[in-house]
Design a protein that fits this description.
This protein is mostly helical. The chain is built from nine helices and no strands. Helix content is about 75%, strand content about 0%.
Length: about 160
């Protein structure tokens, strides 16, 4: 990472998502200095995924970022979210399995997304099981509360068993 590139990348990151024109200007500078920078490509993917809701274009940027740096800790979480939003469930599941093997990655987030995948597939019991796995990797009160709140939400969606009178 060159100092010039990092300046533009961090400027872009600082402007995201509040000032997209400034973010895009800085990001284009960053990518012109280093077109293979995984973090810059990831941020461009996020813009397409989160702001423009153009999942196919976003996936191209995320794929390129993964090719440029397969050990990047930022790319998988945003790429997985994009795949889930686009209902590319098989691809999301494969990426989660791969990402769990990356040293230093936020496993709580990955297990949270694995739970979300099960929930979207209609398997609430599995979703709760994966949230139990996520809890094991929570190291802040905030992340633990997010997991607990999600468990309550999923349980509220589960069908109630009828008792025989």
């Amino acid at each position: 990472m060159t100092l010039t590139k990092s300046k533009y990348y961090f400027e872009a990151l600082d402007n995201y998502p509040y000032s997209l024109p400034d973010c895009l200007e800085a990001l284009n500078y960053a990518l012109s200095y280093d077109p293979e920078d995984a973090d810059s490509l990831c941020l461009m993917g996020r813009i397409y995924s989160e702001m423009l809701i153009d999942y196919e274009k976003a996936k191209l940027y995320f794929e390129e970022a993964m090719l440029c740096d397969v050990t990047n800790l930022n790319v998988p979480q945003y790429y997985i979210k994009c795949l889930l939003d686009n209902e590319d469930f098989r691809e999301a599941e494969k990426l989660i399995q791969y990402s769990l093997k990356i040293k230093g990655i936020d496993k709580a987030t990955l297990w949270f997304y694995r739970s979300l995948l099960s929930e979207k597939r209609g398997s609430f019991a599995n979703a709760l099981k994966f949230l139990d796995d996520a809890e094991k990797f929570c190291f802040t009160e905030y992340s633990l509360n997010v997991i607990k709140d999600r468990k309550k939400f999923i349980k509220s969606k589960m069908p109630r068993k009828k008792q025989n009178d």
